[in-house]
Amino acid sequence: xxxxxxxxxxxxxxxxxxxxxxxxxxxxxxxDEKKIENLNKGILPIWEPGLEDLVKRNTENGRLHFSTxxxxxxxxxxxxFGAVGTxxxxxxxxxxxxxxxxxxxxxxxxxDYVIMVTKSTVPVGTAxxxxxxxxxxxxKRGADVDFDVASNPExxxxxxxxxxxxxxxxxxxxxxxxxxRKLMExxxxxxTMNGHPVIFMDIVSSxxxxxxxxSMLATKISFMNDIANLCEIVGADVNAVRKGIGSDxxxxxxxxxxxxxxxxxxxxxxxxALVKTAEHFGYDMAVLKAVEDVNQRQKSxxxxxxxxxxxxxxxxxxxxxxxxxxKPQTDDMREAPSLVIIEKLLAxxxxxxxxxxxxxxxxxRVLGDKIEYAKDKYDAILDVDALFVxxxxxxxxxxxxxxxxxxxxxxxxxxxxxxxxxxEVKNNGFKYFGIGVGDKL
Length: 441
Ligand SMILES: NC(=O)c1ccc[n+]([C@@H]2O[C@H](COP(=O)([O-])OP(=O)(O)OC[C@H]3O[C@@H](n4cnc5c(N)ncnc54)[C@H](O)[C@@H]3O)[C@@H](O)[C@H]2O)c1
Hints:
The protein has 441 residues and is of the alpha/beta class. It has helices at 10-21, 33-40, 51-60, 97-109, 126-140, 161-166, 178-187, 189-192, 203-234, 238-246, 267-280, 286-298, 301-309, 337-347, 360-367, 401-407, 422-427; strands at residues 2-6, 25-29, 64-67, 79-82, 114-118, 147-151, 171-174, 198-201, 318-322, 351-355, 372-373, 386-389, 412-415, 431-433.
């Protein structure tokens, strides 16, 4: 089987590498010439555990190819995946220009049956727009070529993307064609054989499933952040509350950790896009609007604590930040809470020294010389007034109190991920402010 994947970002590259790993001939296409040139040299555009090995192995064995020319990557191909970006439009709805351009390009060049599968996260009704765009191009050149469209949203998590793709909880495929369903069954057979189910459904439900999944996860996060903030006010310990509710099987222990708000390329834009879709159909997504509001507020919570601690004056203070990426195991800085915290600190006249195990280059690209870049986690807190823990990388999880006491000018920690034991930190002579735990301000 031969497939083409259009868009070689987080989703497209992982999808391509993983399909090639199970024996499928894959071409990954991108319009970014530099990206493809680098990939052909074995240089990856993103940092993702396990991906480099997978790409190297499958490029060397000839199953994974990279190209900038979609038109030349369609020969004998049965399935074309669209995995291009769907960034938010000015009003928050998903911008479909890249998705539809791929459909048009496919329509301009196919000569045999293909399934045009949308893997990008797209609002309900997009498959029909894809079908129309592709058909329009076929009509323009008077080509009578049969094709189907399908929706196959991606649920991988950055930081665990390879594992998630190879061992998915489930694969969702939306299609209205028996022919497409049979081909998709064949494509995913290596995964279903290993016990990972494909759930087939109609296209609209499949498109909706992706947004519902991300919105539910974002809701859990904002809910728990709200609870944590209230815990602080009433004097409850959110860690205890979390364990207390997480042991209820109807709630479960996952995704109920309070923090500095969700970021990344998906939750913020997908929550906004679903609210917009609902508005378009005349429905008010009241819960999701609140989820978004709470998240915006939460990104400033750590900063607000620091401002209060330093009596409202941060001018001339220096803050050491551990963790910049929006979550551990990725270098993705899109919508990272660290950016909001840093901008707020800088706006108050404070200085920032920061360290992240893999996202330093990405941060430099975004922030340039606005902050100081430390060479390691200890350098980041040398002579600073307080430590901010923003991303819970494993290397931050155990504190060497003796060392950090010597480095920090003032023994105060603002822990945006609640990764430390409150009593231990306090017993070692530190002031400790977590999210819903720690000292009172
Ligand atoms: N990143 C994630 O964790 C994740 C998870 C699930 C779903 N998604 C969804 O998948 C989609 C892609 O996300 P991503 O994070 O991989 O995006 P990305 O920005 O990392 O990659 C998109 C790629 O598409 C390329 N591209 C744009 N137009 C093109 C065209 N006409 N032809 C060829 N290439 C083109 C861009 O150059 C870029 O390399 C989005 O809809 C996103 O919401 C993302």
